[in-house]
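I'll show an entry:

:::
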Amino acid sequence: MEIDTETVLKIARLSRIKITDSESTNIQKDLNRIVEFVKKLGEIDVDGIGEFNFGKTNLKNMRQDSDVVNDITDDILKNTKSKNQNFFTVPKIVE
């Protein structure tokens, strides 16, 4: 399928895009290159190639989440003199 200037102008009109004649020529070349590329893709032999399942995940292959509580607050706060309950205290900087 060859895309001609008339087709490009029709696409531009349907898309409500104003294009000049020079832009029309460049767009026509680009669209023809895309059509040729798609034709080449159609020529590729894909017999014997399995389906690509990107994004499918089997739950049995995933690790199970588990809750782990790591409360090391006392170990962290033992290294400071400035603390209030379970928090560090710092000098006031905003008035």
Remarks:
- The two ends are 73 Å apart (CA to CA).
- The domain at 5-42 is CATH 1.10.20 (Histone, subunit A).
- Helices lie at 5-15, 21-42, 73-77.
